[in-house]
Every structure is written in structure tokens, then in C-alpha cells.
Design a protein that fits this description.
Radius of gyration of chain A: 26 Å
Distance between the termini of chain B: 40 Å
Distance between the termini of chain A: 47 Å
Oligomer: heterodimer
Strand content of chain B: 15-25%
Shape of chain A: globular
Number of strands of chain B: 7
Order of helices and strands of chain B: HHEEHEEHEEHEH
Number of helices of chain A: 18
Strand content of chain A: 5-15%
Helix content of chain B: 25-40%
Structural class of chain A: mainly alpha
CATH architecture of chain A: Orthogonal Bundle
CATH topology of chain A: Cytochrome-c3 Hydrogenase, chain B
Helix content of chain A: 40-55%
Bound molecules: iron/sulfur cluster
Order of helices and strands of chain A: HEEEHHHHHEEHHHHHHHHEEEHHHH
CATH superfamily of chain A: Cytochrome-c3 Hydrogenase, chain B
Structural class of chain B: alpha+beta
Strand order of the largest sheet of chain A: 1-2-3
């Protein structure tokens, strides 16, 4: 469209007036020399849909605001209209890199509310799946951190190992990714001896492969240059910001829920909590590498100890009955119908139960009014809380390190946005 | 107590590692040695992935000599977290008295969680090992009885697995 002639005339008049009087115009820039950079939410290196608003002075980051919520699916609200059983598949989709851990955490929270416990075999299997999920999550971390700083080979190798783990998950739960494996009071199904043999083989071989990856990274000048002293957070600040998981342990603070408040059978197991000093990306990498080795140690011990027996607690009215009973007995059939239709009805009250997920403390807070549905279900997801410390880690760093710092913090947006 | 290995930091590198060239060759040797290892991936459309009996593929209905086991109790449609199942009951002369006159699963909604299989009191709906589901329209993805029904012989592996491990 042609601009209106009178407007053109008016503008040229103003310009003419300015030129005639030899005036100069200065504009106040509120940012002065700074630049605002908008990173994400579709940036391939932000590990999902994380958006960062970064304030730059030259190449130095002088401010950073993480913005979350692009993957918000309202799980906490959704839970209020799901029976406790129905919510299990939703927990897979929180931290989708370690669904088994979420399944376990949720089932344990509901069990605590109901005042029941899973049988010993189920508890041992839960430890196995939690540790496998921890390894798979840390392998993902290893691959993506290496890729973020430019080493693609390690990414491929880490994914190969993860693939083997997914084969195991497929044998255990029937699905590779969205496992939905634990049930309130037990597990969906028992594991076969062949699967346990697969776990054993995997646990035996993993340290060798990890060493291969380390040989590419640990003495690599570029890798060290990109991570050493980058993204530092002090122990005090980390505690203030509620950082948990490997990020906290890389600051020299030994805090691991498996040790601090043992759940399942962790108190009978012999393992170390890797702790490193420094609080930088490199320390976080070291913590996770060591944690994988500790997980292998745990796996081997649990495989040794694996007791026989049921994987489902026998608690009529609270736990879904075993299938063969449903087919043959009237009473169990009725329980099956009641539990599915109305949900298990826990006593009135509230509980908080947390586990050490690969990313930190994963907690479920449930408030029950004694109905089949939770009145309120709050998820304390580690990634969401850990993202708080991102601005501190980035402050004063270079723009090129932003990606590496996000990689070393290892957030998963499915969990952060819930 | 925590295990405290030492972190190799930049300042700990020796002169050769700092020079980097030797490290490049060491790294290349490691990566090149991978070429001679057996292939880990497979070429998908030619080589197909064979799921174990524990695999949760798309749900199917089981029939015995042409009569479906389902008694249209509606439990599966109640438990389904994705609201993918629609059952309409009707009466029959057979011993089970009820049967589903209409049974539909929307395969686009289904999340393959296996809950329907878990709660069914008749072992009538179970998870198959089919994982290749491609549709060109929404309507095509709604499976009616004719596409859902499978005989007990076809589903033998899964049924045996369920009896042994559930
Ligand atoms: S498939 Fe099973 S649960 Fe579903 S309606 Fe039929 S009998 Fe009931
Ligand atoms: S597998 Fe799950 S989502 Fe699919 S039909 Fe069964 S209950 Fe519904």
C-alpha cells in the first residue's frame, strides 16, 4: 500500500526542520552496551523446551532467567481426577529418561499413605530397576555433555549402552520407554531368570565401556577447557538454592537419600557416595561417572541377594489381586472391580515420600481425604528445583559455555514442567 | 564415606597431553578400533525387531473358536488412562450371558500401558506383539471387533507368559 501523501509530507517537513537547525538526536538506550539473547525454547542444545533469557555484556553472561512451562501438562491437577492406580502411566512421563525411578517413587509414596509394603522380591527388583534407570539417565548425560562440547563419538557409545538397557526394560516391563512397571503394593509382573542374566551381563560389561569413554574425555584438552572451572557454584549457594543430586555432591556435600534416609533395601547394600570438590561442570561429570560404577556395584549385590517369592503384596481391598485368583474366586473378582472402579481408599492424612532419582530428590506429597483420588498431589521434581541454580552457574561465564553448563546440570523438561 | 578420586584438571595434563596432537591419535585409534567390532544396529525394514512375549504391543481381543471371551463388563474401559476403549454390552444365549455388541479401541489414543489387560477378569483383552501401527486418517485408527479379535492359538506366547509371571 502506498503511504499516505500527507504523512510523507509531514515527515519530510520534520526532517527538513531538523536539518535546517543542525540538530543532533541522541536516544537513550536502556540496555547501554548489553544485549538480550533469547535462547530456546526450540534450541536443540537446551535439552527439551527450556527457554533462557540471557543478558550479555560482550560475550559475558551478566544475567540469566530460565523460563519453564513449555511442556506443562498439568500432572498435579490431573492427579486429582485419577485414581491412585490410574496415575502410574503419568509418572513415566515426568523424567522420561528414567521412568523406572518415577514409577518406584510414586508407588512407594502411595504405599506409605496406605501403610503397606511391597514384598521383599519386589523391593529387590525395584532397586535393580532404579539403578538401571540411574545408569541410563547418566549415560544420556554423558553423551549429551560430550556432544554439547563437541565430541560426537561419546554420544554414540553412550546410546549403544542405553539401547542394551532398553532391551532389559523391555524384558522386565514390556516397554522400552514408558514402562509403567510398578504397582501399588508391588510390581506389574515378575522378572524372568533370563532377564536377570541380562542385567548381570550388562553390569559386568558396563565399566569397560565407561572406561573407553573416559579415555576419550578425561585427558582431552578441549573437553577440560570447556568444563574445568566452568559453571561454578559454591556449596553454600547450592544448599540455599535447594540443589540436590549429583550437582550438590559435586560441591563437596555428601547428601544422598539412599544413605540419608534409606528406602527399599539400600541399607543392606554396600556402596559409596561419590563426592567431589569444585562445584564446576567437570566435578559434576566426575560424580556421575563414579555413580554409574556404584550403581553397577549395587546391581551385582542385589542380583546375589535376590529372594524368591511374590512380587505383589497380598492386601485385599488395597492391592489389585493376583490374576489367577481373579479368574477363579468370587471375592477377588469383587475386589478387582472395586479397586478399579473406586480406587483404593487410603486413610485421611498426608505424607511426603522421596527417593534419590538420577537428577536429585524426587518426592511425592499426597494429601488424602480418604477417597479413591488424591485431594492434592505435589511432585517435588529435582529438575525444576535444580534449574534455579542455573543463573548462579552462568553468571560471569561466556556465552559459548551456556550450553555446556545446561548439559552438566542435566535438566529434563518433562519433569521440570510437570 | 564418599569415594574421592582425583579430578584430572587442565593443570594436571602433561606436556604431551597439552600438545594435543598425540591425544588426537590416541583417540582416533580408539574410534577406529570400533570399526572391527560387530554391528550393533540393524537395517530396519529388512531385518525386523522380534519382540519378547513380555512386550506390550497393541491390545487385542481373544476369541476361542470364534466366540470372544469378553463379557462386556467395561472394566478395561474404566481403567484405561487414555480413555481409548468403548464397550457396549448386549445379551447372548451363551453361558457367559453378556457379550460386547460393539468394542472399539482408538489406537491413536492408546498409550500401550497394559492396564486393560491387567484388570480384565476374563483374560479377554491382552497385549499383542504388534508395534507397526500406521494410519492415514483418524477413522482408520479406531479398531472395531473385526480387527481386534485374535484366536488363542495366535496369542499363545503372551497368554503363557501372563500365566507364568502375573
Ligand atoms: S475385555 Fe475384559 S475388562 Fe474389557 S469389557 Fe471385556 S471382559 Fe471386561
Ligand atoms: S493399553 Fe492402556 S491405553 Fe491402551 S487400551 Fe489398554 S488401558 Fe487403554
Amino acid at each position: 500500500m502506498e503511504p499516505r501523501t500527507d504523512e510523507v509530507a509531514r515527515k519530510s517537513k520534520i526532517l527538513q526542520a531538523l536539518e535546517d537547525q543542525n540538530t543532533s538526536v541522541t536516544l537513550d538506550d536502556p540496555l547501554e552496551n548489553d544485549m538480550i539473547l533469547n535462547m530456546g525454547p526450540q534450541h536443540p542444545a537446551t535439552h527439551g523446551v527450556l527457554r533462557l533469557l540471557i543478558r550479555l555484556d560482550g560475550e559475558t553472561v551478566i544475567g540469566c532467567v530460565p523460563e519453564v512451562g513449555y511442556l506443562h501438562r498439568g500432572y498435579e491437577k490431573l492427579a486429582e481426577s485419577c485414581t491412585y492406580h490410574e496415575f502410574i502411566p503419568h509418572t513415566d512421563r515426568l523424567d522420561y529418561l528414567s521412568p523406572m525411578n518415577n514409577n518406584t517413587a510414586y508407588a512407594m509414596a502411595v504405599e506409605k499413605l496406605l501403610g503397606i509394603e511391597a514384598p521383599p522380591r519386589a523391593q529387590h527388583i525395584r532397586v535393580i530397576i532404579s539403578e538401571l534407570a540411574r545408569i541410563s539417565s547418566h549415560l544420556m548425560f554423558l553423551g549429551s555433555l560430550a556432544m554439547d562440547v563437541g565430541a560426537l563419538t561419546v554420544w554414540m557409545w553412550a546410546f549403544r549402552e542405553r539401547e542394551k538397557e532398553y532391551d532389559i526394560f523391555e524384558n522386565i516391563a514390556g516397554a522400552r520407554f514408558t514402562t509403567s512397571y510398578t504397582r501399588i503394593g508391588g510390581l506389574a509382573q515378575d522378572v524372568t531368570p533370563e532377564t536377570l542374566a541380562m542385567v548381570k551381563k550388562f553390569a559386568g560389561e558396563l565399566p569397560g565401556y565407561l572406561e573407553e569413554c573416559e579415555r576419550l574425555l578425561n585427558k582431552n584438552r578441549i573437553f577440560l577447557g570447556r568444563t574445568d572451572g566452568v559453571g561454578v557454584i559454591s556449596p553454600e549457594k547450592a544448599l540455599d538454592l535447594g540443589l540436590t543430586g549429583p550437582g550438590l555432591r559435586a560441591c563437596g556435600i555428601e547428601h544422598d537419600l539412599r544413605r540419608a534416609s534409606p528406602y527399599l533395601v539400600y541399607k543392606d547394600l554396600d556402596f559409596n557416595i561419590p563426592v567431589y570438590e569444585g562445584g564446576d561442570s567437570l566435578a559434576r561429570y566426575y560424580v556421575r561417572m563414579d555413580e554409574m560404577r556404584e550403581s553397577v556395584k549395587i546391581l551385582q549385590q542385589v542380583l546375589e541377594k535376590m529372594p524368591a517369592g511374590e512380587v505383589h503384596a497380598f492386601k485385599p481391598k488395597k492391592v489389585l489381586p493376583k490374576k489367577d485368583r481373579v479368574y477363579t474366586k468370587m471375592e477377588e473378582l469383587i475386589h478387582d472391580f472395586m479397586i478399579v472402579n473406586f480406587g483404593v481408599e487410603p486413610p485421611v492424612g498426608e505424607i511426603y515420600s522421596a527417593v534419590e532419582a538420577p537428577k536429585g530428590e524426587l518426592g511425592f506429597y499426597i494429601y488424602s481425604h480418604g477417597e479413591g483420588y488424591p485431594w492434592r498431589l505435589k511432585i517435588r521434581s529435582p529438575s525444576f528445583v535444580n534449574l534455579q541454580s542455573l543463573p548462579t552457574m552462568m553468571m560471569g561465564g561466556l556465552i559459548s559455555d551456556v550450553v555446556a553448563i545446561i548439559g552438566s546440570l542435566d535438566p529434563v523438561m518433562g519433569e521440570a514442567d510437570k | 564415606m564418599g569415594s574421592n578420586g582425583k579430578i584430572i584438571r587442565k593443570k594436571d595434563l602433561n606436556i604431551w597431553q597439552k600438545a594435543y596432537l598425540t591425544e588426537i591419535f590416541k583417540g582416533l585409534r580408539l574410534t577406529i578400533s570400533q570399526i572391527f567390532k560387530p554391528k550393533f544396529t540393524y537395517l530396519y525394514p529388512e531385518v525386523r525387531f522380534k519382540p519378547q512375549p513380555s512386550f506390550r504391543g497393541r491390545p487385542v481381543l481373544v476369541h476361542e473358536n470364534g466366540t470372544e471371551r469378553c463379557v462386556a463388563c467395561g472394566l478395561c474401559s474404566r481403567v484405561c488412562p487414555a480413555l481409548a476403549i468403548e464397550v457396549q454390552a448386549s445379551e447372548t444365549e451363551l453361558e457367559k450371558e453378556r457379550y460386547p455388541i460393539k468394542f472399539e479401541i482408538n489406537m491413536v489414543r492408546c498409550i500401550f500401558c497394559g492396564f486393560c489387560e491387567e484388570v480384565c477378569p476374563e483374560e479377554a483383552i491382552i497385549m499383542s506383539n504388534e508395534y507397526e501401527l500406521v494410519f492415514t486418517s483418524q477413522e482408520e485408527a479406531i479398531f472395531g471387533k473385526e480387527r481386534l479379535l485374535k484366536s488363542t492359538e495366535e496369542m499363545k506366547d503372551r497368554l503363557e507368559f501372563l500365566r507364568a509371571h502375573r
